[in-house]
Amino acid sequence: MRLPCLFFIFLVAVDAGKVLVYSPSISRSHLISNGRIADALVDAGHDVVMFIPEYELLTDSVGTKKATVITLKGFNLMANNGALKPLRDMKFDVAFSEQIDLCGVGVIRYLGIQNHIWVSTTPIMDAVSYNLGIPYPSSYVPSIEENDNGDKMNFWQRAFNLYMHIGSIIIHRYGTDGTTEVFRKYDPDFPNVRDIAANSSLCFVNSDEVLDLPRPTITKTIYVGGLGVPKIANPLDEKFSNIMSKGDKGVVVISLGSIVPFGDLPLPTKQGMLRAIGDMADYHFLIKISRGDENTRNLTRGLENLDLVEWLPQVDLLAHPRLKLFVMHGGINGLMETALQAVPTVVVPIFADQFRNGIMVEKRGIGKVLKKLDIGYESFKSAAETVLNTPSYKKNAIRIAEMMRNKPFTPEERLVKWTKFAINHGVLEELHVEGSRLNTIVYYNLDIFAFLFFVILVFFRVLCYAFIRVISESSDCNTRNGLVRSDPGGSTGGLEEMVGMVRLVRLLCFALLGTILSEP
Ligand SMILES: *[C@@H]1O[C@H](CO)[C@@H](O)[C@H](O)[C@H]1NC(C)=O
Ligand SMILES: *[C@@H]1O[C@H](CO)[C@@H](O)[C@H](O)[C@H]1NC(C)=O
């Protein structure tokens, strides 16, 4: 009676599942990334709940337009057990959380959900590669944390890169041990949150293979950069189409994001940039400022080729044929939107992964990086004019955009198909990489290197010893021939060598024992 059983399994492989997306309100861009995931899954027919612990007060948007939203105020989620109960009762098939902290991973396990899917909201974070066992060759993979290095590094850059990587892992371990302690207050047997994360079924990465610096990955890392970015732009309203028609040669848009808006730049920087804008009279400029920034309005009074706006339809503007250059901070979402529309850019990295995203742009030849501390009249003008006047930037941007659009499977398809796969098959244990469970000594074979080192050392000691014996014997010979006087301490020297050898062998034994004991 095998058949009915098989039939049952077939029936269980459902099309729609219950999905939880854990999305703390850390910043607008994180809500947007998570919201795009939630919306794509709703479109695919899943029942999606976006759970938002409110770290920062929610203002205009919660990121998702289609999922059910549950918010929870206050920092101490765990003390608020009553609020978590309805979530536990919903019996989700699978839950998403992002890499920014491992609280989400813990909450998901605490809710009794075993099947976890991780999201890296930037190119693969150091902590993500560390936990999942993704190979991280620091010689050519730049750490994500504030880092000006690309994938070609000289000796000191590699040293700095390694230092940044190890530093971020140490901080990560410290932070996640703290997180684990919080959960252990409520459940003493709670596993370390890093171990839960290591068992994630999949990891969706908010980056694109064509744009990102190439690096080794594992099967469970799936690139979905560009997810939810509208591929077809809406027509502009009257105000913006009027702005886009200005400028003999086209329009340049400057939008530095919400963390450090234009108005927050130092006064000399702003004055320098505005002077450069005045010089580039062939182009019309559009700067996004924050709400009520009278200061900048006063500063720019009298500049003919400039408009200020407090909000702009970014994707629609990027798609406009008269847009020639986008000056941005290099946040990954904005960068994807820009690259997909083939717009050359000048990136002014402000913090976190933005430095590395800038390197991506330079490597692909679709723009230039302008360091935030260097911006002024000269540097801004030269960067903007270089990108505007060198045709290769636009040419490369078109090639990258075409590849991003034409690569096999869209980000939505990848997200939806793999999520469905995880819903149908439960925890994807088969994709777990053993490296995620090894300690550092074994992972890097440090024990074998230590062993080899000692073997070589012993070999040379023996060689040395033999050599000394030969020499002293031949000198004995020489003395016998009366040519050289023998050294009376010669034989004691040999004894010292022997004692040294014994010590060495003992040391070797201890080292071996140590490494064997340190096996997990
Ligand atoms: C991770 O998965 C392994 C089996 O693949 C299991 O033995 C282990 O308990 C899991 N760890 C956690 C913390 O769930
Ligand atoms: C801007 O200029 C107006 C009039 O010239 C002045 O009243 C106002 O205080 C200025 N605002 C700032 C923030 O400088």
UniProtKB/TrEMBL annotation:
Residue ranges crossing the lipid bilayer per the database entry: 448-468
Topology within the bilayer: Single-pass membrane protein
Signal peptide: 1-16
InterPro entries according to UniProt: UDP-glycosyltransferase (IPR050271), UDP_glucos_trans (IPR002213), UDP_glycos_trans_CS (IPR035595)
The keyword Glycosyltransferase appears for this protein: yes
Sorted UniProt keywords: Glycosyltransferase, Membrane, Signal, Transferase, Transmembrane, Transmembrane helix
Listed GO MF terms: glucuronosyltransferase activity
EC numbers: 2.4.1.17
A Pfam family it matches: UDPGT
Catalytic activity entry: glucuronate acceptor + UDP-alpha-D-glucuronate = acceptor beta-D-glucuronoside + UDP + H(+)
Top-level taxon: Eukaryota
Localization: Membrane
PROSITE patterns membership: UDPGT
Main location: membrane
Protein's UniProt keywords contain Membrane: yes
EC class of the enzyme, as a word: transferase
GO terms for cellular component: membrane
Family from the record: Belongs to the UDP-glycosyltransferase family.
Protein name stated in the entry: UDP-glucuronosyltransferase
Species whose genome carries this gene: Caenorhabditis briggsae
